[in-house]
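Troubleshooting log. The previous structure file for this entry was overwritten by mistake, so regenerating from the original sequence record. Sequence copied from the archived sheet and checked twice against the printout by T.R.
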Amino acid sequence: MPTGTDTPTRPPQTSRSWGWQAIATALTLAALAAAGVTVWIWLRPPVHLTRAGLHTAASRHVTREEPARLVINIDAGDLTVRPGPAGRVGEQRTLTWKSRPPVVTESFARGTLTITSRCPAGQPAACSADVALSVPPGVAVHAQVASGNVAVSGLRGAVSLAAVHGSLRLSRLSGPLQLRSASGGIVGEALTAAQVSARDAAGDISLAFAAVPAAVSATSDAGDVSIDVPKRAAGYRVRAATPAGDRTVSVRQDPASADAIVATSDAGDVAVAYSRT
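Regenerated output below.
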């Protein structure tokens, strides 16, 4: 798949030769489409040189296939996933590099669309691939980003996110959530997910729910933890603890409740409260 690298110069061809190639290409694509094979068509994006001496190239494409699962692995760059039309995945990609561009590959097999971006060895500080996706709302997402921020909104499927150097921002998600960050914050807004597990090694965690969750666990090694939940007459089964910060629990507590909240921090404040809305 082209990623913005230079293409070797080819000898000029006659117009008749180009005409036969165009006909052959059209027939090949038609045959693949008839066979139900997913076809990606990329146009070479223009490459721009910034004042800082970095190259950038932006491109867009559409995968006319609906995956059940989306797997993303990015060395460096921001990732955005939002809901889009059924039956297709739209992608906007921006590559930035100093001497060699990141290598981006895509594959579709057994209902899983896999997107991987790798930076050439020795160039992590001058290489990135920002990826923005629009996907069917029911797709499950599994994403890992080594250096970059992740934003996911409006999905119903299960979401598993991990960032080493970057933050996680979530909005209006209703499927089970597994969230991990090593050095950035985790923020969730208007969540309706029943099952949420969040852990941050060196950042704050803030989760706000628009529907009563069944099980929430949020733990930070060195940051604050706050969980906001809707009011309910039966109350919540709450375990909130911190050895080095303030502990505030203002929701009604019921040790026998089926709905459990765990909020802990090793070096920050912990708060469990009712949502403001």
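The chain has one helix and 22 strands. Archived copy saved in two places this time.
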